[in-house]
Structure formats: structure tokens, C-alpha cells
């Protein structure tokens, strides 16, 4: 399923804190890597690399990607659907569009319908290649059983606006709207390695937020 990108809302006025929203949890407009490195300092509160900053570091094609068991199953199901259903349907739409296009098929003469269908085929093929690469490099890990927050942990945090629950995953699985927060996001970095009852600080565009970890599952 294609990744969803939350749309950033208006910037809060000075001195006013905005509610703890999915965008603030994920670090919207920030770049992340698909892989997770256990060498990242788990107890430092690190601001994510956002647009206008250092940018994304090059990633080796062979780099291992950590996935939860549920994440690997979800991505495998998406890959199967795209290859066996969605791509076949898109190719059929492209075939019909070409049959119905004018006889002149030289460069630049494609109809809007052909171009649209071709774009959809290319988009699906790119996503299929991305999923195949991710799954080929996947390392499946289960959530820690020690009470310490790690990949796969379901975490409930609270601030002055209330509570919110999310699952901590790598960027390959992250989907804010589905409640899956990247370990490379500001909140992900802050809570990684922590336990229930601890309070962490998170740097956001609106300022520093204090989150209390209520529950770890």
C-alpha cells in the first residue's frame, strides 16, 4: 500500500503549543533512511534531519532493513497484490488506451489516456521494485520482552494534551495515519531504549515537548 504523507498544518503562534498530532510524532517533512542502525545512541534526544539540513546519507544497496513480523507480512501482501492484480489491470488499461489512440504513434503523439496509463504502470513497477528490494534485505525482529522500548514496541505516551499510542518501526514500515512511527523520527529517537514511567524531551518545530511514557507493550 502506498505510503501516506501527512500534510503539515499552519505553524503555531509564538508561545502556544500545538496538540500532540501524528505529524509531530513522526517528524513530518523530515527525511529518514529505510534501514535501522543499532549503533544509534538510544538515550540521546536527536532532532531529525529535515528539509534544508544535511539531507539523506547514501545507503548501500545491500544494507539490512529491520522489519517487524507484522511489517514483513504486510509488505509481502502488498507486493503480491501489486504484481498479481494491480499491475495486470494497469497493463490492460494501457493496452486499451493504445488501441483507442489515433493512428499516429510517433514520439510526442501519445494521447492523454495513454500517457496516464503509462505513468501508472511505471509507478507500480517502481513500487514493486522497492518492495522486492526491501524484502530481500529484511531482517525480522520481535519486540523486546524486557520492557525496554525497541522496534515493534507498542508505546503509549502522554503530554499536556492527552495520550497517544503508536508502534515503533523502521522507516520501511512507517505510516503515521496507521499509528506506525519511525524510529528515525524525533519521537522515535527519544523513546528508543526507554521504559514506562520515564519522561523524554522531543524537539519539534513548535519547541521542546515533554512526553511521559505511560505504557510499553
What is shown here, in short?
With 217 residues, this protein is α/β, with parallel strands linked by helices.
In DSSP terms, counting alpha (H) and pi (I) runs of 4 or more, how many helices? 4
SSE order, one letter for each helix or strand:
HEHHEEEEHEE
**CATH architecture classification name of the largest domain:** Roll
| Gyration radius, in Å | 21 Å
Mean model confidence by pLDDT: 77
The tally of domains stands at: 2
CATH class assignment of the largest domain: Alpha Beta
Q: How many beta strands in the DSSP annotation? A: 7
Largest sheet: spatial strand order: 5-4-3-7-6
Tell me what portion of residues adopts beta-strand conformation: 15-25%
Q: Catalogue the unreliable spans.
A: 1-24, 26-61
Distance between the termini: 26 Å
Structural class: alpha/beta
- Biggest sheet layout: 5 strands, mixed
CATH topology of the largest domain: Chitinase A, domain 3
Relevant CATH superfamily of the largest domain: Transcription elongation factor, GreA/GreB, C-terminal domain
Helix content: 25-40%
Using the alpha-carbon principal axes, give the shape.
Answer: elongated
Question: How would you characterize the overall build of this protein?
Answer:
This protein is an alpha/beta fold and 217 residues long. It has helices at residues 22-26, 69-100, 112-136, 186-191, and strands at 65-67, 138-140, 154-159, 162-169, 180-182, 199-204, 207-216. It has a 5-stranded mixed sheet with strand order 5-4-3-7-6. The longest helix is centred in the middle third of the chain and has 32 residues, at 69-100. The chain is elongated and about 70 Å long. The two termini are 26 Å apart.
Amino acid at each position: 500500500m502506498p505510503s501516506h504523507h501527512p500534510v503539515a498544518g499552519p505553524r503555531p503562534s509564538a508561545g502556544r503549543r500545538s496538540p500532540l498530532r501524528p505529524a509531530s510524532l513522526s517528524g513530518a517533512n523530515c527525511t529518514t533512511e529505510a534501514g535501522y542502525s543499532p549503533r544509534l545512541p538510544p538515550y540521546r534526544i536527536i532532532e531529525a534531519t529535515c528539509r534544508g539540513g544535511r539531507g539523506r546519507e547514501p545507503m548501500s544497496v545491500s544494507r539490512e532493513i529491520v522489519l517487524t513480523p507484522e511489517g514483513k507480512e504486510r509488505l509481502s501482501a502488498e507486493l503480491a497484490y501489486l504484481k498479481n492484480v494491480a499491475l495486470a489491470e494497469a497493463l490492460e488499461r494501457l493496452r486499451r488506451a493504445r488501441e483507442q489512440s489515433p493512428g499516429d504513434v510517433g514520439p510526442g503523439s501519445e494521447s492523454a489516456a495513454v500517457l496516464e496509463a503509462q505513468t501508472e504502470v511505471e509507478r507500480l513497477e517502481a513500487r514493486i521494485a522497492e518492495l522486492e528490494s526491501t524484502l530481500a534485505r529484511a531482517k525480522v525482529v520481535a519486540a523486546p520482552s524486557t520492557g525496554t522500548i525497541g522496534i515493534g514496541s507498542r508505546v503509549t505516551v502522554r503530554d499536556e494534551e492527552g495520550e497517544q499510542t503508536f508502534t515503533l518501526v523502521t522507516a520501511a514500515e512507517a505510516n503515521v495515519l496507521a499509528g506506525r512511527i519511525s524510529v528515525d523520527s524525533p519521537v522515535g529517537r527519544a523513546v528508543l531504549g526507554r521504559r514506562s514511567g520515564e519522561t523524554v524531551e522531543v524537539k519539534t518545530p513548535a519547541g521542546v515537548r515533554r512526553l511521559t511514557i505511560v505504557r510499553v507493550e
